[in-house]
Design brief:
- It is a single chain.
- Helix 10 (241-254) packs across helix 12.
- It is globular and about 65 Å long.
- The chain has 296 residues and is mainly alpha-helical.
- The protein folds into two domains: 3-88, Orthogonal Bundle (DNA polymerase, domain 1), CATH 1.10.150; 115-292, Orthogonal Bundle (hpI Integrase, Chain A), CATH 1.10.443.
- The protein has helices at residues 3-16, 22-42, 52-64, 69-88, 115-122, 130-145, 149-153, 182-199, 219-233, 241-254, 259-266, 271-292, and strands at 160-161, 166-171, 174-179.
- Helix content is 59%, strand content 5%.
């Protein structure tokens, strides 16, 4: 089969069979394209017949190119998925990447904001104009729910139930309900009742949060909002939409939240993804201890 057909088939497999997120899909396809280009230069046979040894040589080649361990690990994961697709389609007899091992990268703990920094950050949007009301509602919603930025901007008006203080979030074919604290309920209510009707370009617009043109807010647009208020607050930490997600998770754990409830709210399929916040909280406590204890 031609390379382009293989890649197109793999991309379709990721979308349909794996329900892969757009970023994951793009990364996996990019990794596989890079491997097929390498394989065409270094080997004569079709890529479908690659062996474990050949993939291990590719891993070594990536190391020699100065690729980071995390990048190499993801490349191997992409190839495992690619050959899983090929074997399922009967295009390969085995998965040569299945047992290929890579160096484990040291996972950096995510940076979070302190409680005071969160308060300072959320106070920055001034409710004196349309943009200020909208931005206050978006930031309060993000910190109240710990949503991913893609989930936030994909919210529709019908996903919010202010009467019971919940928001419904859909991601990767699954749905979860996340509670809202009272300040977030008020910010969304103020925005929905008086501000959004003045902003929407069409009465049929379903998006909860819209840009100044009246259409659904984009990732890039929200990124600019975050950066604007970081500068306005004078916070030196590099704040991204994910910083508020990390802060939400760490602060809930610090205050006694059950880790399984937190897993549900964050939408993690695997509890190990949530457990990183336990490590983060322990590190924070240790730092406080070392700074405050007279004999530390």
């Amino acid at each position: 089969m031609q390379k382009d057909e293989l890649i197109a088939g793999f991309e379709s497999y990721l979308k349909v069979n794996r329900s892969a997120a757009l970023n994951t899909l793009a990364s996996y396809v990019r990794d596989v394209v890079k491997f097929t280009e390498y394989y065409a230069v270094h080997h004569d046979g079709p890529v479908e017949q690659a062996t474990k040894e050949e993939i291990e040589k590719y891993v070594q080649w990536l190391k020699n190119q100065g690729r980071m361990p995390a990048t190499i690990s993801r490349s191997v994961a992409s190839l495992r998925c690619f050959y899983r697709y090929l074997t399922a389609e009967g295009l390969a007899s085995d998965n040569p990447a299945r047992d290929v091992t890579t160096e484990k990268s040291v996972k950096k703990l995510p940076e979070i904001l302190t409680g005071k920094e969160v308060e300072l950050f959320l106070e920055q949007p001034e409710c004196t104009d349309l943009k200020g009301y909208r931005d206050r509602a978006m930031l309060e919603t993000l910190y109240a729910t710990g949503m991913r930025v893609s989930e936030l901007i994909n919210l529709n008006v019908e996903d919010v139930n202010l009467a019971v203080g919940f928001v419904r979030c859909r991601s990767k074919g699954k749905e979860r309900a996340i509670p809202l604290y009272s300040a977030a309920v008020k910010a969304i209510s103020d925005y929905l009742t008086t501000i959004r009707p003045q902003m929407i370009a069409s009465p049929d617009e379903p998006a909860l949060f819209v840009n100044m043109g009246g259409e659904r807010m984009s990732r890039q647009g929200f990124w600019k909002v975050i950066k604007y208020y970081q500068a306005k607050a004078g916070i030196k930490k590099d704040i991204t939409p994910h910083t508020l997600r990390h802060s939400f998770a760490a602060h809930l754990l610090e205050n006694g939240a059950d880790i399984h409830a937190l897993q549900e709210m964050l939408g993690h399929a695997d509890i190990t993804s949530t457990q990183i916040y336990t490590q983060l909280v322990k590190k924070q406590l240790k730092d406080v201890y070392n700074k405050a204890h007279p004999r530390a």
